[in-house]
């Protein structure tokens, strides 16, 4: 008779991770073994170990290796996309060595708590690093835990307007699920590794000692590998930077509140505000994402520069002259309202907290100075505003025309509710072209050059605009946002085309409807996102003053700006926050400080 095979027991194929030496913690060994045995029976591990011992062993080692990779990866993960390369992970993280030492020195229950907290900490670290990647990629700066949570709803709204509500909802739910899943997996990884270290305590202790000595030696000698230090404290450094950034932001909020109360023109009498512009129709226009890169980047610049040169000549033929320079924006890649408010308030507003503080107060904006003088009617034309906008009072606007007030019946162009050409024609029809008792000060925000630059409208005959339905075919024939947003080269190309469209629309409007008393100041609010503007791009944006009356440009002659709509590379560069006071002084305003 054939001899039946000897049964394989769980002990004969012991899991290197779940088998524990009784000598390590003898009092608790039996209860734990019982619990593991029950768990194994419930999950089917007993069957797998007895029937497929090699598979079981391989899976166990794979799980342990994966846990180690997850922990080490989280500790060494850079916070920028260009930094995510193999050499970034060839380091010895101090946090791993210290974690091993702590685990080896704790009894079971505190060790389990420590492992869980360590896993949650790694989850938070990974999430912050991923947020840093996104913010660096789009806004050219890291994530600020004290300030930037308010931007996440805006990001979801942008995705909804660009790619649809379904994609936005899926992205939001997916992000939450991903974080929760990451937390579960990371905690399981740290618990598994902590148990492994304890079950092999002597070897683990020797390994931790050796790793610590190597780390200290490499750190002391400054040894490097693949261009970076071997001894890493990346995780601790990242948390330290974020903690410091948060503390500084909270301190800054209190200091800025005091700064906003002081205003060099806060008590200037109405009759001493802008006397040299009396009788002029003043227009301040921001072109979305119109940055220095549009004029100097080799991909975007040729087309944009041709447009600026052509527009300069066309305006000159219509009797207009222009002067142009550079302003350094308070924001980058997005948050356009920070650029608007910085320019108009004369304060450096580079985060949402500062914006809320100043817009809730009575600091004099440049637009409000026109209203306060009593010599102008003031209006805002903002096709991007689709809900209540209480800031209109702070800006000093008698009337606001938002997306629903301009009569547009055509299609949206991605985020932009309507083409710039239509918005300007509606402004002319409903506001600028009407007779009035006073001249007009207008605050106009153009949106067609908003990312993702697909689809982009095209200029049509001004007499063909109607209610905007003429853009239906153009929108349908345009690029899809999903095809452009993930392609850097195409994004740059389409961004350049969008800037050309916006500049052409504005300058053609001025040729068509501008008068001897029209004065236009137009500028960008910020550079485009970092992957379009380029690595280490400046925060500079072009700014131009355009007028027929030579006396207007004579007032800014000492600014030494470039003639025409394209500023020279070496034209003066000012902080955006300096524009308000320079403009007020240039046109005769007398400072009377408040605060």
From TrEMBL:
<keyword id="KW-0472">Membrane</keyword>
<feature type="transmembrane region" description="Helical">
    <location>
        <begin position="89"/>
        <end position="106"/>
    </location>
</feature>
<feature type="transmembrane region" description="Helical">
    <location>
        <begin position="209"/>
        <end position="231"/>
    </location>
</feature>
<keyword id="KW-0812">Transmembrane</keyword>
<feature type="domain" description="Sulfatase N-terminal">
    <location>
        <begin position="359"/>
        <end position="528"/>
    </location>
</feature>
<protein>
    <submittedName>
        <fullName>CDP-alcohol phosphatidyltransferase</fullName>
    </submittedName>
</protein>
<feature type="region of interest" description="Disordered">
    <location>
        <begin position="1"/>
        <end position="30"/>
    </location>
</feature>
<feature type="transmembrane region" description="Helical">
    <location>
        <begin position="58"/>
        <end position="77"/>
    </location>
</feature>
<dbReference type="InterPro" id="IPR000917">
    <property type="entry name" value="Sulfatase_N"/>
</dbReference>
<keyword id="KW-1133">Transmembrane helix</keyword>
<dbReference type="Pfam" id="PF00884">
    <property type="entry name" value="Sulfatase"/>
</dbReference>
<feature type="transmembrane region" description="Helical">
    <location>
        <begin position="167"/>
        <end position="189"/>
    </location>
</feature>
<feature type="transmembrane region" description="Helical">
    <location>
        <begin position="113"/>
        <end position="131"/>
    </location>
</feature>
<dbReference type="GO" id="GO:0016740">
    <property type="term" value="F:transferase activity"/>
</dbReference>
<keyword id="KW-0808">Transferase</keyword>
<dbReference type="InterPro" id="IPR017850">
    <property type="entry name" value="Alkaline_phosphatase_core_sf"/>
</dbReference>
């Amino acid at each position: 008779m054939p001899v039946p095979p000897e049964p394989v027991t769980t002990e004969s194929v012991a899991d290197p991770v779940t088998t524990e030496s009784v000598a390590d913690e003898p009092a608790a060994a039996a209860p734990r073994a019982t619990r593991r045995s029950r768990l194994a029976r419930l999950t089917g591990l007993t069957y797998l170990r007895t029937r497929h011992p090699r598979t079981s062993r391989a899976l166990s080692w794979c799980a342990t290796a994966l846990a180690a990779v997850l922990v080490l990866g989280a500790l060494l993960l850079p916070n920028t996309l260009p930094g995510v390369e193999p050499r970034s992970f060839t380091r010895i993280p101090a946090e791993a060595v210290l974690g091993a030492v702590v685990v080896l020195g704790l009894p079971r229950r505190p060790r389990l708590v420590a492992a869980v907290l360590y896993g949650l900490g790694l989850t938070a670290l990974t999430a912050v690093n991923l947020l840093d990647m996104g913010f660096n990629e789009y806004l050219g700066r890291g994530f600020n835990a004290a300030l930037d949570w308010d931007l996440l709803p805006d990001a979801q709204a942008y995705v909804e307007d660009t790619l649809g509500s379904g994609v936005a909802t899926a992205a939001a739910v997916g992000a939450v699920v991903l974080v929760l899943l990451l937390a579960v997996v990371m905690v399981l990884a740290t618990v598994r590794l902590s148990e492994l270290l304890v079950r092999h305590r002597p070897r683990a202790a020797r390994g931790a000692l050796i790793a610590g000595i190597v780390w200290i030696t490499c750190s002391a000698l400054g040894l490097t590998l693949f261009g970076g230090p071997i001894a890493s404290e990346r995780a601790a450094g990242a948390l330290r930077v974020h903690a410091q950034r948060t503390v500084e932001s909270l301190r800054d909020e209190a200091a800025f509140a005091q700064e906003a109360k002081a205003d060099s023109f806060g008590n200037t009498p109405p009759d001493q505000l802008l006397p040299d512009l009396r009788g002029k129709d003043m227009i301040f226009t921001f072109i979305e994402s119109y940055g220095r890169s549009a004029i100097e980047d080799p991909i975007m610049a040729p087309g944009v520069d041709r447009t600026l040169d052509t527009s300069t000549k066309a305006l000159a033929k219509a009797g207009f002259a222009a002067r142009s320079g550079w302003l350094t924006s308070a924001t980058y890649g997005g948050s356009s309202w920070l650029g608007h408010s910085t320019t108009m308030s004369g304060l450096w507003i580079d985060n949402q907290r500062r914006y809320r503080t100043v817009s809730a107060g009575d600091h004099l904006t440049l637009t409000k100075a026109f209203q306060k003088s009593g010599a102008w009617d003031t209006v805002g034309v903002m096709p991007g505003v689709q809900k209540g906008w209480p800031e209109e009072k702070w800006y000093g606007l008698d009337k606001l025309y938002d997306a629903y007030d301009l009569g547009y019946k055509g299609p949206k162009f991605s985020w932009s509710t309507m083409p710039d050409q239509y918005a300007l024609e509606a402004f002319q029809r409903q506001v600028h072209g009407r007779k009035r008792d006073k001249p007009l000060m207008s605050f106009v925000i153009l949106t067609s050059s908003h990312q993702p630059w697909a689809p982009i409208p095209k200029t049509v005959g001004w007499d063909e605009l109607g209610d905007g339905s003429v853009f239906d075919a153009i929108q349908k024939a345009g690029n899809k946002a999903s095809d452009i947003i993930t392609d850097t080269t195409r994004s740059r190309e389409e961004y350049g085309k969008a800037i050309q469209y916006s500049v052409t629309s504005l300058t053609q409007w001025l040729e068509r409807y501008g008068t001897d008393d029209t004065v236009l100041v137009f500028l960008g609010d910020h550079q485009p996102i970092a992957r379009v503007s380029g690595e280490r791009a400046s925060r500079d944006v072009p700014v131009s003053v355009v007028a027929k009356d030579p006396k207007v440009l004579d007032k800014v002659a000492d600014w030494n700006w470039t003639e025409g709509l394209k500023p020279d590379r070496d034209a003066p560069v000012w902080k955006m926050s300096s524009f308000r006071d320079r403009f007020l002084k240039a046109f005769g305003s007398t400072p009377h400080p408040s605060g």
